[in-house]
From TrEMBL:
Transmembrane segments: 104-126
Pfam families in the cross-refs: GST_C_6
Top-rank lineage group of the source organism: Eukaryota
Native source organism of the sequence: Pterocles burchelli
InterPro entries found in the cross-reference section: Glutathione-S-Trfase_C_sf, Metaxin_GST, Mito_Protein_Transport_Metaxin
Name of this protein: MTX1 protein
Gene name as annotated: Mtx1
Metaxin glutathione S-transferase domain boundaries: 6-69
Keyword match Transmembrane helix: yes
Keyword list, A-Z: Membrane, Transmembrane, Transmembrane helix
Record-level GO BP terms: mitochondrion organization
One GO CC annotation: SAM complex
Family matches, as PANTHER family: METAXIN RELATED, METAXIN-1
Amino acid sequence: QLYRDARECLTLLSQRLGSQKFFFGDSPASLDALVFSRLAPLLKAKLPNGKLQQHLRSLQNLCNHCAAILSLYFPWDGGGLAPRVAGADGGEGEEDPHKRRNQVLSVLAALAAMLGYAILSGIVSIQRAGTAPTGRQPLTMDEGEEEE
């Protein structure tokens, strides 16, 4: 029932918007902001069940509405909500061709930062082999412990 209600709501919003760019004329109003705040995540999120998302993508005027608001208020990310176009092989194209590289570099940078913090704060200390810190004796095993 909830899915049917949501689907009907999207259809009614699409009918109300019609061929206009925004709901009340040539500039966005509070209703446009409210509708965008609900539709943009639905268009962008990867959902386990994409039936409602597919229905929304079939309503091209609502997709165009979101794209218009994105390009108006978020020009650096305006094309992010357009439905993905399948590649020549039939699969979806990679969002970012360097995504894997960026993930690996992010992990390496985080590890380097954590290691640097640990060394500078004294949590970890690096010493030469065979030398003990001042005032401390190296750990050794007694002869009796070696036999056990």
